[in-house]
């Protein structure tokens, strides 16, 4: 029966710790921006065509450096 009391105290303590962490982060502003993660995936910054152009620019810059 003593272990039951210990487990109840431990579970309530863990719950209180998580509640305190949640309240701290909510006041800090962690959960304010809920729209930009949904929009961020729509902004295709890692476009394969852009990568191809970047690779061409890098190879052109390397060839210019070698010719100097």
Helix content, binned percent:
over 70%
Percent of residues in beta strands? under 5%
**Which value, in Å, is the CA radius of gyration?**
27 Å
Q: Which sheet architecture does the biggest sheet show?
A: none
What ranges have pLDDT less than 50 throughout 5 or more consecutive residues?
none
Number of β-strand runs: 0
* Secondary-structure class: mainly alpha
Overall body shape: elongated
Q: How do the helices and strands follow one another from N- to C-terminus?
A: HHH
How many helices? The count is 3
- Give the N-to-C terminal Cα separation: 83 Å
Mean pLDDT: 79
Word description of this protein:
Helix content is 76%, strand content 0%. The protein has 68 residues and is an all-alpha fold. It is elongated, with a radius of gyration of 27 Å.
Write the layout of secondary structure elements.
Blueprint: H1 2-28, H2 36-40, H3 48-67
Q: Tags for this entry?
A:
single chain, mainly alpha, elongated, 68 residues
Quick recap:
The chain is mostly helical and 68 residues long.
